[in-house]
Design goal:
Elements: H1 3-23, H2 37-56, H3 60-69, H4 82-93, H5 104-112, H6 126-137, H7 142-151, H8 162-180, H9 186-209
The structure holds fe (ii) ion (FE2) (2 copies).
């Protein structure tokens, strides 16, 4: 692994672990937090970005730096202006990390624009599009269920029952359908459709088991 990538990864692991410890109290000093939502998310963005690079091509350095930087200023669930701040951080620090200077502008663009609405990225910014798709496709399948259930105790003011969990699933599925149609690349749309089908199957089974009529 190149030095800059190891440093960006180590940074993110440290930043997100500290933030997760604040949420999950009761963990002994030095032990890992019960769940590090942000780190798990970024690791999945990396997996999907690498798969996507194999299919559609792109600059591996730009994409990997963007993956590990894009949520640096949203270490768990909160982070105002986190995309713009990641861009500013990249501009000020990436060169000192040993990242190829001629590629920094593309990283800045990718991270600063990763929260834009669907369809906003120009076609001369393929690396930014890879980051955008990879950032979103991890949130529409089995992983979304795990993220929701594992992370939900962080929001104890939102109590759940089997029925509210099933309803949460169905509420999101319809929006997801529209959302994934707007991904930039065909492979991401294809993975998203598969993942959404798995999620729908899970929530359908859950609703059936508890006797919930999903239409009301
Ligand atoms: Fe983000
Ligand atoms: Fe993200």
């Amino acid at each position: 692994m190149t030095d800059w990538l190891a440093r960006l990864r180590d940074d993110l692991i440290a930043i997100t672990t500290d933030a997760a410890r604040v949420i999950w109290r009761g963990v002994p000093d030095g032990a890992p937090p019960y769940f590090n939502y942000r780190l798990e998310h970024v690791r999945q963005v990396e997996r999907d970005a690498l798969r996507l690079l194999d299919r559609v091509g792109g600059d591996r350095d730009v994409v990997l730096a963007s993956v590990w930087l894009h949520d640096r200023f949203k270490p768990q669930h909160i982070g105002d202006h986190h995309a713009a701040r990641a861009g500013e951080w990249a501009r000020a620090n990436l060169a000192a990390y040993g990242f190829p200077p001629e590629k920094i502008a593309r990283v800045i663009f990718a991270v600063a624009n990763h929260s834009r609405a669907p369809g906003a990225l120009p076609d001369d910014a393929p690396d930014a599009r890879v980051l955008w798709d990879a950032d979103k496709v991890g949130k529409v399948g089995a992983l979304e269920i795990v993220m929701f259930l594992a992370g939900n105790p962080a929001f104890p003011h939102k109590p759940n029952t089997f029925a509210t969990i099933a309803q949460h699933g169905f509420d999101k599925v319809d929006g997801d359908e529209l959302f994934i149609a707007q991904f930039y690349f065909a492979p991401t749309r294809e993975w998203a459709r598969e993942r959404l089908a798995a999620k729908r199957a899970f929530y359908t089974a859950l609703a059936r088991e508890i006797g919930l009529d999903q239409n009301g």
